[in-house]
Design goal:
- With 337 residues, the chain is of the alpha/beta class.
- The protein has one domain (12-331): 3-Layer(aba) Sandwich (Rossmann fold), CATH 3.40.50.1820.
- Helix content is 30%, strand content 19%.
- The chain has helices at 26-30, 48-52, 116-127, 145-158, 178-193, 215-219, 228-239, 278-290, 314-331; strands at 12-14, 68-75, 82-89, 96-102, 129-133, 166-176, 200-204, 267-274, 295-304.
């Protein structure tokens, strides 16, 4: 009798064409100046309030639709109260799926305002309560401040004392760029303490490795959205007194250093073709698979870091549609067995 075929946990879609590094694809040229879509330019000269104002144009701040409620909350945290924005489907009576949304910003910028449009979209399209956390930013608050704040927000969301009507068996953590590193750090801490685990990690272009020795980091030195120089500044500001590249950097600061990923939740990983962070993401995908973590990996061709800001581009629409479809599928149904 033939044994049933085991479905691979990895679905890999790679459609690449050889292009000059940093060269604009036709859709980039049609979409106008790419630099205007940069999610973050790490800087030591801007003020904290100015860096909080950094926002991705792909998720501008729309009017609140009538079928979504928005509330501001203060969560208890190790460094004091943590601000968060909670988006929920209006008039929902049953416990809903929940998503902790961790914004991008190279550890030094961004805010809940920068992901407000995204939070509203996820709330409506996935039918989930979305909690966007205002974590502390470097360099004023270097590691581990941001990890501690995001971890506190996760514990608040995943426990009944949080005060939001969510099903703790149907929760996800969503992180983009620096937010992806923070999402993994929260998942690692949750695993190690035996806490309530997310059903899924959704990672978009995560910033994972302070050592910056990948081929894509060396190759894409002047690409739109995020450059190798931006990565160097980002890690230096985030790690504070810890020297980037040294053995002192812990795994929950730079998840590429994690030696054991077993027990992490199923993970969706979206990577962009012309992104300095691309290859460290691919290396992390290999480590997830080696440690038997179910993984779906999608490398979007012709894209760069933050290119979904060009929301009218066909590839951006596919990226955003897949985000909704993946989360909806992962969070549907009842409790996991």
């Amino acid at each position: 009798m033939t044994s049933p075929r085991r479905r691979s946990p990895l679905r890999l879609r790679l459609r690449l064409r050889r292009r000059r590094p940093g060269a604009a694809t036709p859709w980039m040229r049609r979409s106008g100046p790419a630099r205007s879509c940069s999610p973050t330019r790490p800087s030591t000269t801007s003020t904290p309030s100015a860096r909080r104002g950094i926002a991705s144009p792909s998720h501008s701040s729309p009017a609140l639709p009538t079928d979504v409620t928005e509330s501001a909350v203060e969560l208890p945290g190790p460094g004091g109260a943590i601000s968060a924005s909670v988006f929920a489907p209006a008039e929902a009576s049953e416990a809903l799926p929940g998503i902790l949304l961790i914004h991008s910003g190279a550890f030094v910028g961004g805010s809940t305002a920068s992901v407000r449009g995204q939070a509203i979209d996820l709330c409506r399209e996935v039918g989930a309560v979305v909690v966007a956390v205002e974590y502390r930013l470097a360099p004023e608050h270097p590691y581990p401040a941001a990890v501690e704040d995001c971890d506190a927000a996760w514990q608040w969301l995943s426990t009944p004392a949080g005060g939001v009507n969510v099903d703790p068996s149907r929760l996800a953590i969503h992180g983009t760029s620096a937010g992806g590193a923070l999402a993994i750090a929260v998942a690692l801490r949750t695993r190690d303490r035996g806490g309530i685990a997310p059903r899924m990690l959704f990672l978009n272009s995560p910033e994972l490795d302070d050592r910056r020795f990948s081929a894509s980091m060396a190759k894409f030195v002047d690409t739109p959205g995020f450059t190798a120089r931006d990565a160097e500044i980002s890690w230096r500001l985030y790690l504070g007194d810890i020297t980037p590249g040294s053995d002192a950097v812990p795994a929950d600061a730079a998840p590429a250093r994690a030696e054991n990923l077993r027990g992490l939740p199923p993970t969706y990983l979206a990577l962009m073709e012309f992104d300095p962070l691309r290859d460290e993401g691919l290396a992390f995908a290999g480590k997830l698979l080696a440690d038997d973590v179910p993984l779906e990996l999608h490398l979007f061709p012709g894209t760069f870091h933050g290119s979904s800001a060009l929301a009218h581009a066909e590839v951006s629409r596919r990226e955003l549609d897949e985000e909704v479809a993946v989360l909806r599928r992962a969070l549907s149904g009842g409790s996991r067995s």
